[in-house]
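Appendix B. Extra example for self-study. Work through it before the problem class; the solution is given directly after the inputs so you can check yourself.
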Amino acid sequence: MPHSLNSVSRRRFLGQLSAAAALVLAPRRVRALDTPPTKKLGVALLGLGSYSTHELGPALRATEHCHLTGVVTGSPAKGKEWARKYGFPKKNIFAYDTMAQMAGNPDIDIVYVVTPNGVHAENCIAAAKAGKHVICEKPMANSVADCDAMIAACREAGVRLTVGYRLHYEPHHAELARLAREKVFGPFMRMDGANGFTMDSEARANTLWRLNKKLAGGGPLMDMGVYVVQAVCMAKVEAAPIAVTATFGPVTRPDVFSEVEESVKWTMEYADGAKATCLATYGESVSRFRAEADHGWAQLEEPAFYYDEPMLTTSQGKVHLPKVNHQVAQLDGMALELLAGRPSIAPGEMGRRDVAIVEAIYAAARSGQRVEVRA
Ligand code: NAD
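Solution. Structure tokens for the complete assembly:
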């Protein structure tokens, strides 16, 4: 998700920055561990664009269980600047084609892939071959075939593959998952979600790859819709839908949306009769999710998926949970999972499931047919 650049989103972005700054200054919270951590894991960020610069780099200053120890970048000058700013040695600056040399480097335990979607697979596979655990940004890849190759490479190398699904580590979204798992209101049967931002000229200039089919894999469905797919699956206790239907929205700006969709609406249909109606768009700023069961409901208020503190309301009232920086919570959560030898709550298989759902949605939108999901 890029920083949306209309005025509402700009305010949100500034809010995010101050929230991040507040967290850096706040007393650190330590989660309960099965076994005490023996070390801080070293993370190398691969791809030093917007998300690494504004969110992940700063978050890695505030994390308890991991820290930034290196980078992979196409720009040696940028690498040196990051090394100076974050205080790691120049030997920990790698280029995309020198990643194999990382193999003997004990400072780096995890490579965090933060490049355009279309290069996630080659970047993740290179990191696995260097013997490093991998966190891959969402969406995991442009195709299920690429996801399979990534999972196989990590398995072969004996390293862990997780997806940068920060909201699994965010308390309000985790509470939604608990409500679903424990069937507090009964199983969620009716869901509605939407996520998008206005792809205006400033946003376009900052993020041209998002409009490029090869690099992005698609339009707002790949970028923003994945959050809605995630929320629906979370509300269905991580089950995949059995089938989807979908329609592309009108193309109002053909000069901008020549390769990828401008918006798409879809439905997800579950084996127990549950149904979700969903929207992903580059035409408006929207971010909401609601799930209804026979004995109550839960709603993530606007903005449901941005970096702000989500607000969760249920049929029993407003839910009060701690405010966290999403990226700090995710990075520490994943580091603790590794240090404690626990399985991840956002594994590569989950990223693959979501890409399979996305592929079915595109197939349904192209054909106008109901498409069964093989996740
Ligand atoms: P960006 O354009 O700001 O940065 C991408 C970086 O990748 C740039 O530094 C660019 O130089 C580098 N790069 C490496 N190989 C490249 C290639 N072949 N072509 C083009 N650029 C290449 O993008 P971003 O907003 O930082 O997004 C990067 C990834 O992070 C995307 O997968 C995106 O979906 C994800 N993301 C996730 C979140 C979240 O909340 N989880 C938020 C923003 C972005």
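Self-check: Residues 1-2, 47-52, 74, 114-117, 119, 137-138, 164, 166, 207, 209, 215, 223 surround nicotinamide-adenine-dinucleotide (CB under 6 Å). If your reasoning did not lead you there, revisit section 3.
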